[in-house]
Specification:
By secondary structure, the protein is an all-alpha fold. It is built from 17 helices and two strands. Strands 1-2 form a two-stranded antiparallel sheet.
């Protein structure tokens, strides 16, 4: 379900926030003119917003392990806001829309080896560091949280532990397994033969139909491959990138609208439950549809250039912190919450804010000393490997 200064981001090769603007006299979309790049800093800000939504859900919008960190249910800690925090889990769907946009942009005109190197170098260094860090912290005698077995911990480093049935070191990394399957589908169907407007439209149409059939068939292998629950969000993001290339593209708008319609239905099916006094929080169908709609709308605003005015450099830093923050915020956040709230007696809302700040600081350190160091080296090594 995502580097510091701009120069460092360019050096790392992360194309997640660059847009292609054709020069005057633009030829047909399948054969674009030599591009010039303009940074989509608003997309950086949107990525961090989605990550903060997920953090709000993990800290104050659900039960489970975080109850132990607070010493009581988060419902008691945040009697008013816990209902709103419960919608924060939809930040994952917003991430997937952004990912569809970004992966289509970064894969367009790129050979398969370069695409693979870019994605692997983007995901792995911070992920490896987060797995090692959480494992070490949870193993400390003063930290009363259970760790996974050594065998499961090691297989976590492959990013393939989810299908292998191993326990997760990071609670959020199930979304990376979803992302990897999306990368594989896009690489095989679009990047390998070469991205064109027609091929991308065909990919979106075929995946949409196949995902609907998979859901109707209720066949585990089809569900695993085609991901009907999350496919409309990735496909919607791809459609929005086509809109970004040509806002008059009727097929692109059709992809976006159909994906939104299916996506909101999928989100309601997965996250809505009949109101119950025993539920932690009762999400309404309207609230779920509203959050999904706002996610699509914000990415659409970026695609159409309506947020180009949000060109502040600090948004670049915010975007660089998003991925490491997302990786470490949940489990290490429990440790910080318990230390601040139960041991030091810091009030709930102050603990919430201080924990978010602490995780952002940690994300900045991971970005500076891990990602900025290892990402370009790993990408270069994978690109040159034969």
């Amino acid at each position: 379900m995502i580097d510091t200064p701009e120069a460092a981001r360019e050096k790392s090769g992360d194309t997640a926030i660059r847009t292609v603007l054709p020069r005057p006299g633009t030829p047909p979309p399948d054969k674009p003119a030599a591009p010039r790049h303009h940074r989509l800093r608003a997309l950086d800000g949107l990525r961090l917003l989605a990550a903060l939504m997920v953090a709000a859900y993990h800290y104050g919008g659900r039960g489970g392990e975080v109850t132990k960190a607070w010493g009581s249910s988060a419902e008691l800690q945040f009697p008013t806001l816990h209902t709103l925090f419960a919608y924060g889990c939809l930040g994952v769907q917003v991430f997937f829309v952004i990912s569809g946009f970004v992966i289509c942009m970064s894969g367009w005109g790129r050979p398969l080896r370069s695409f693979f190197a870019s994605r692997a170098a983007r995901l792995l260094p911070a992920y490896w560091a987060a797995v090692i860090l959480v494992t070490v912290v949870f193993a400390l005698p003063a930290v009363a949280w259970s760790t996974v077995s050594p065998s499961d911990g090691l297989v976590n480093l492959t990013l393939l532990h989810e299908p292998l049935g191993a326990d997760r070191v990071l609670g959020v990394d199930w979304t990376l397994w979803v992302e990897i399957r999306f990368y594989a589908l896009f690489a095989l169907c679009v990047v390998l033969p070469g991205a064109t407007r027609q091929r991308v439209i065909l990919f979106c149409a075929c995946w949409t139909l196949a995902a609907v059939i998979a859901q109707a068939a209720d066949e585990p292998l089809l569900d695993l491959t085609l991901m009907p629950e999350y496919a409309p969000f990735f496909i919607g993001g791809i459609g929005l990138y086509l809109v970004h290339r040509d806002r008059r593209d009727v097929y692109a708008w059709g992809i976006v609208v159909v994906s939104w319609l299916i996506g909101q239905h999928s989100a309601v099916q997965g996250l809505w439950r009949p109101p119950s006094p025993d539920a932690f929080a009762n999400r309404s169908a309207f609230g779920i549809v509203l959050v999904v709609t706002l996610g699509f709308a914000l990415v659409a605003a970026v695609a159409l250039g309506w947020l180009r005015w949000a060109d502040w450099r600090w948004l670049t830093v915010a975007g660089a912190l998003t991925y490491p923050f997302y990786l470490v915020h949940e489990h290490l956040g429990w440790v910080v919450i318990e230390a601040l709230h139960q041991e030091l007696g810091v009030p709930s809302y102050a603990t919430f804010l201080l924990t978010v700040v602490a995780m952002l600081v940690l994300a900045r350190l991971l970005n500076r000393y891990v990602e900025n160091t290892l990402t370009p080296r790993l990408r270069t090594a994978l690109t040159r490997a034969r």
